[in-house]
Design a protein that fits this description.
The complex is a heterodimer of chains A (314) and B (351).
Chain A (H helix, E strand, L loop, with lengths): L40 H13 L3 E4 L6 H12 L2 E6 L11 E3 L1 H9 L11 E3 L1 H6 L1 H10 L17 E6 L7 H12 L1 E2 L8 E2 L7 E6 L7 H5 L2 E4 L5 H11 L5 H10 L14 H14 L8 H8 L11
Parallel strand pairs in A: 1-8, 1-9, 2-5, 5-8
Antiparallel strand pairs in A: 3-4, 6-7
Chain B lengths: L5 H14 L4 H10 L28 H4 L5 H4 L45 H4 L22 H12 L1 E3 L6 H9 L12 E3 L4 E6 L8 H15 L4 E6 L7 E2 L20 E5 L16 H13 L4 E5 L8 H6 L1 E4 L6 H8 L12
Parallel strand pairs in B: 3-4, 3-6, 6-7, 7-8
Antiparallel strand pairs in B: 1-2, 4-5
The chains are: A alpha/beta (314), B alpha/beta (351).
Chain lengths: 314, 351
């Protein structure tokens, strides 16, 4: 597939496979440090199309398939700032733009230090930071808040990557309510004279992830670039392991991938995810438990064969 | 000819202009990401519905053909100026190509589906579906208007929770009376976060609606979230026996069957109004009202979708239950008329 790449992880030294002896992937759990990401052609194309069109990228895929870590790594590759917000069932679209710090306002009122205008208590949300960092910094200073973690990534680049994680957890109206600020690249803050706005050349690259817990509105889907990540299996798992753990012998990575592979006809939920594979490799290396050693099965029971999953009959 | 939905057309032009695909594979892959599906059969002339094929620069002389790229784009930053891509719906005007630029042309097939339909279209019956080749009867038309279903269910299943903006009046009143503020009072806000329990009437009277029930369950799961929906079956009245599995395992619906406080209980039943040769026993209005009272005592809003019209609903039930006609005449407006903005959780403060 040949085209002009606006985004190319191969050009980023930080994304290159680590040298032998260089250890990456020391973090555990849902790795969001964005240190390592093994791209496929489809992922790179989706990001390029997102950049070329300004559409948000909706990432689907099973748990542990790398949905959340993709955004942070893309920010690293691009050298852009990075902000994230995990969506919950209580999140409203408004919370992603700005919020009022009612608690501080109440405290100030009780201490007779109440500021006359509401603006003093407005906290910028992730999209404000991504749209216009300068005004967000000013506002954060007024509201005695700090910039969210990741905002200083990429120096002070004028553009940002935003991850809105697990958008399907939100109430059905939320995705549609995001269409206006994401489409018009501006929104109004209560008590603020000018709207917070950016322009196409400064627009953030927005990643949204979904576990397909609930369907997203059609109008919203039509405006997204959709990227489906499959559960990694076999060679792909080994490739991911190789990038994360260059110091671990290839044969070990392959053996672990083979030992945790489920039956061919297994349901998607029965497949260990790439994250679980990495945790198994990490635990195996850290605890010095060799594949097929007496403790090996116990290790797999706690890392892979959970929730009624079963290994392939041998 | 490939149909390109309007909004996708402009973005497709942008993507082709910025990414300059050099082979069909790249072209169709990026088109698919924008919702333009499938390459044409080999017999067709061009890769797109465009009269002029998209510019695929020749590898031999790309530099002379390509539009000048801003410096930032070369560094991996798109630098489109002007209107936001998401808001744009039209392609670049034809004939705008200047020296050194490539004109990108695409034909947009009008998107008739997004235009308002004439009023008369709502009142006529469509042609019957063609007989299926497999011999199995076609599925009945959905009871709710498909394009409204999501909004109807979103409105009907939501309950009010104190998730909304700060209730400043209540807070001020609390502070003025010198009461400690243990929780910030918030205004009620409709939410599906507390989950849904679906009670599906499997009595013989509901047999004509069996396919609709299956469809309804899936629709509720899609709107409220699969993990958030519990489905129980019953025959006639939940208190006579209900459960998630086989009928022989059903137990009378009791306290332990009730979902957590605030979850919406949705009943799919004819309330005994239908007739069927082996219809079995139908619950009376008093029994339904007693059941509804028990659900309400548990702090769960209750709504009943009834496949028969309002004229047949018993007056007692009409007054004592939230009833919705499970039918094409039901709209978001009718849901609001019955429920208000959303259902209140019984016994819960408004904020």
């Amino acid at each position: 597939m040949r085209y002009h790449h606006l985004f190319d992880p191969a050009n980023d030294p930080a994304a290159a496979p680590p040298r032998a002896g260089e250890r990456r992937g020391a973090a555990t759990g849902d790795r969001r440090d964005g240190g390592v990401y093994v791209y496929t052609e489809a992922i790179v194309l989706a990001i390029n199309v997102g950049l070329a069109t300004g559409r948000p990228i909706l990432v689907r895929g099973p748990s542990g398939s790398g949905k959340s870590s993709l955004a942070r790594n893309a920010a690293r590759v691009l050298g852009w700032r990075y902000y994230e917000r995990v969506i919950t069932s209580r999140t409203q679209a408004h919370d992603l733009l700005w919020e009022v710090d009612h608690l501080r306002r109440l405290q100030d009122a009780q201490a007779r230090e109440l500021q006359p205008d509401l603006v003093s208590y407005v906290r910028p949300g992730v999209l404000w930071w991504a749209f216009h960092r300068e005004s967000a910094l000013r506002q954060a200073q007024i509201a005695a808040r700090r910039e969210p973690e990741g905002g200083d990534q990429g120096g002070e680049h004028h553009r940002a990557v935003v991850l809105l994680d697990e958008i399907d957890k939100a109430d059905p109206d939320v995705p549609n309510n995001l269409l206006v600020p994401l489409g018009s690249l501006q929104f109004q803050v209560e008590g603020y004279g000018e709207p917070v706005r950016t322009h196409a050349a400064g627009a953030p690259l927005v990643f949204l992830t979904t576990n397909d817990e609930r369907d997203l509105p059609g109008a919203f889907l039509r405006r997204c670039v959709e990227l489906k990540l499959e559960a990694a299996r076999g060679d792909r798992l080994v490739e991911i392991g190789r990038h994360h753990f260059p110091e671990i012998p290839e044969a070990t990575l392959q053996a672990i991938a083979e030992l945790i592979s489920p039956p061919q006809d297994a349901e998607p939920d029965a497949m260990p995810s790439a994250a679980e594979y990495l945790d198994t490799v990490r635990a195996s290396a850290s605890l010095q438990v060799e594949p097929n050693s007496p403790t090996w099965q116990d290790l797999l029971q706690v890392t892979v064969w959970k929730h009624g999953r079963a290994p392939k009959a041998r | 000819m490939t149909a390109i939905p309007g909004a996708a057309g402009a973005d497709l032009v942008r993507a082709i202009h910025r990414l300059r695909p050099e082979d069909d594979e790249a072209l169709w892959a990026l088109a698919a990401l924008l919702g333009v599906q499938g390459p044409p059969p080999a017999a067709e002339a061009g890769p797109l519905a465009a009269p002029a094929p998209p510019p695929v620069p020749s590898p031999a002389a790309p530099a002379a053909q390509l539009p000048p790229q801003p410096a930032s784009a070369a560094a991996g930053e798109p630098a489109l100026q002007g209107e936001s891509p998401l808001a744009a719906t039209t392609a670049a005007p034809p004939g705008a190509a200047a020296a050194g630029e490539v004109e990108v042309t695409a034909t947009l097939t009008p998107d008739y589906t997004s235009r308002p339909q004439p009023g008369w279209l709502e009142t006529i019956d469509p042609f019957p579906a063609a007989p299926s080749a497999s011999g199995s009867p076609p599925l009945p038309e959905p009871l709710l208007v498909p394009r409204w279903t999501r909004a109807i269910l979103g409105g009907a299943l939501a309950s009010l929770a104190a998730h909304g903006p700060l209730d400043q009046e209540r807070l001020a009143s609390q502070v003025a009376r010198g009461l400690p503020v243990k929780r910030l009072p918030r205004r009620p806000w409709p939410t599906l976060a507390r989950g849904v329990q679906l009670l599906v009437d499997r009595s013989d009277r509901m047999l004509p609606f069996n396919a609709d029930q299956v469809r309804f369950v899936e629709q509720v799961r899609a709107v409220a979230g699969r993990e958030q929906v519990e489905v129980l079956s019953f025959d006639g009245l939940p208190e006579w026996g209900a459960g998630p599995g086989a009928r022989r395992l059903w137990q009378p619906y009791q306290e332990r069957h009730l979902p957590r406080r605030g979850a919406t209980v949705v009943v799919l039943s004819d309330l005994g109004l239908g007739t069927f040769p082996s219809g079995g026993r139908a619950a009376g209005s008093g029994e339904w009202l007693r059941f509804a009272a028990a659900v309400r005592r548990a702090g769960c809003p209750l709504i009943v979708f009834v496949p028969y019209g309002e004229a047949r609903w018993p007056a007692k039930l009409r007054d004592g239950l939230h009833l919705l006609h499970w039918d094409r005449t039901t709209s978001v407006r009718s849901v609001r008329r019955v429920l208000g903005k959303a259902m209140r959780v019984p016994g819960e403060e408004s904020g």
